[in-house]
Amino acid sequence: MTANFSAARQNISSGGAYESIFGYSRAVRVGTDVHVSGTCAPAEHEQSDAYTQTRAALAIIEKALADAGVRLEQVVRTVVYVRDISDADAVARGHLERFDAIRPASTLVQVASMLRPWQKVEIEAYAKIERE
């Protein structure tokens, strides 16, 4: 069955290697909804702590949102995955810096592993545009 969307679809790429390997977009905008894929810090943050990786992932997310014509203030939900729950406070601090005034709905869960063993956090974001 094929979905019939009345709104145009916009795929946003960040140029990440896995987008073409795995077959996904960094973000997808359909109408007033923007979905940002799970985003980790890039490889140059391999030695970074969870706080720094969170800030790097959120910078990528913010760029993807901007490419979709959306501001960070329009994020309504985030989902945060951590490899080690003891990093939750550091990740929360990075999340708070970007979202303190916005206060999206959010979930934080621990997962068994991530694609790369050095990755400590992965973040998804969902934004809603008031009108198209």
TrEMBL record:
InterPro entries for this protein: RutC-like_sf (IPR035959), YjgF/YER057c/UK114 (IPR006175)
Q: Which Pfam families did the record assign?
A: Ribonuc_L-PSP
- Highest taxon of the source? Bacteria
SUPFAM superfamilies (alphabetical) = YjgF-like (SSF55298)
Q: What is this protein called?
A: Enamine deaminase RidA, house cleaning of reactive enamine intermediates, YjgF/YER057c/UK114 family
Taxonomy of origin reads: Bacteria, Pseudomonadati, Pseudomonadota, Alphaproteobacteria, Hyphomicrobiales
